[in-house]
Amino acid sequence: MLNTIRALAVCALAFSSLAALGAQADEAILIKFSHVVADGTPKGQGALLFKQLVEERLAGKVRVEVYPNSSLYGDANELEALRNNEVQLLAPSLAKFEQYTKQLQVFDLPFLFDDLDAVNRFQKRAKGRQLLRSMEDHNIVGLAYWHNGMKQLSATRVLQMPGDANGLSFRIQPSVVLEAQFRQLGAGAQKLPFAEVFKALQSGQVQGAENPWSNIHSQKLHEVQPFISETNHGVLDYMLVSNSRFWYGIPHQIRMELEGIIDEVTYAVNRQAEAANQADRQRILDSGRSQVLELSAEQRQAWRDAMRPVWQQFETAIGSDVIKAAQTVNRKHRD
Ligand code: SIN
Predict the structure, then answer these.
(1) Which residues of 2-15 are buried (b: 16+ CB within 10 A; e: fewer)?
(2) Are 159 and 102 in contact (CB under 8 A)?
(3) Between vectors from CA 329 to CA 326 and to CA 333, what angle results, nearest 5°?
(4) I need a surface site. Which of 60, 66, 276, 330 has the fewest CB within 10 A?
(5) Ligand 1, closest atom to CA 92?
(6) CATH number, domain at 320?
(7) What are the tens digits of pLDDT across the range 42-75?
(8) pTM (2 d.p.)
(9) 254 lies in a domain?
(10) Domain span holding position 280
(11) Is residue 67 in a domain?
């Protein structure tokens, strides 16, 4: 009798486990995609296109929820949330990974890349691709690079020569390279989350910042920064990342489809990012709220000379092989 009860109990347990697995198999995989910028920016548009394509092609199998504008997680906690699988996709700026790898600091070196095309070439070459895997020990897998654009310097005063920045305090992303870059100018730097930039500039907590045109325009930074110098001194790009355990746990066929969608979205984002930034530059000009200063070749060279010592400071941490590989992508290779 006891044996019969035990056998029935085992059967019931097996049945309920199978039922649970079945229920899981029927449930769509949920991907929460969190980011800190507005929907209208290159990254915001990329996140929405990803959601749209997944809904069209993987309906019932995968569901995507997009949370823009730091509405779910912000700079301070999003990577930790990803590692804990509380969110499954992020696309942080490349300046925000230094806790997990120093190699990505290469993207913060001032005047390393001549333009976004050069950045693109580096990201496509072997060394750039290798960096997508540089955080796997931390359970973070890089899936793609997404462009935003080249950064411009904005401030409460005219910045034509490097000495003009002396004594100002600039908002920076959490990057020791960016901190060193402003130190070279005799300026201060404060690491602040993106969601706090407008208020910090408006209140005078900081007097300057560095951003691509799309971030300046979408955050209305030009309304509190009367001068923007078109320095193109560095890049602000993104890495689309997921939690490695989550990502490689997705059934193979579905993961292949998701990776195909990511390739398509990456192509669309990267093709449109430069045009989107130029359109926002024009909107800023049209607004009349901020004066855009174009630099002469000599002025730009002076900024380059002032910031260039930062490369040596970080060469060991980043790796001279990584820096060299990045330098060779410029049309005119400079040492
Ligand atoms: C972003 O574009 O994701 C924000 C970059 C920043 O913090 O400046």
Answers:
(1) eeeeeeeeeeeeee
(2) no
(3) 100
(4) 60
(5) 3
(6) 3.40.190.170
(7) 999 999 999 999 999 999 999 999 999 999 999 9
(8) 0.91
(9) yes
(10) 12-327
(11) yes
